[in-house]
Amino acid sequence: GGGGGGGGVPSAAAPAAVADLAAQEPENDVDRFEWYRGRAEQGDADAQYNLGTCYDEGRGVEKNDEQAFLWFSRAAEQGDADAQFSLGVCFHEGKGVEKDDAKAIELWTKAANQNNEDAQFILGWKDAGANEGET
Hints:
Blueprint: H1 15-21, H2 29-41, H3 45-57, H4 65-77, H5 81-93, H6 101-113, H7 117-122
Helix pairs in contact: 2-3, 3-4, 4-5, 5-6
C-alpha cells in the first residue's frame, strides 16, 4: 500500500490564518481528516484523538492501525481520556502494536479515573445503565 505525502503548506505560514480557516469543523470526511491533521500536528490532543479515530475507522483516509495507534498515543500522553481508552483497545486487540493486556488495563484505569464511561464499564466499575456507584 504506501500513500504519497500530501503537499502541505509550510508550518511557517501564519498560524493565525490557519486558526481562522479551522474555526469550523468540515462536514466532509476527507476535509475533516485534513482539518484534524493540521491541528493534531500542532499538538491539539482532541484533534490527535480524532485523527487516530479517522485512521482506526478509515474515515477520510485509508484505514491504518499503526497510524491510529500513533495518534492515540500522542493524545493519551497529554491526558486525553478518550484516547487513553482507545489506546487501551489497541493494546488489548494488538492493533498497530503488540498485544499487551496489562498495558490496556493501565490505560483504561487512567481513562476511568477521568470518568470515561467506556473504560469504567470495561473494567467492571459500573454496570451498563447503572448510575449509582459505590465510592
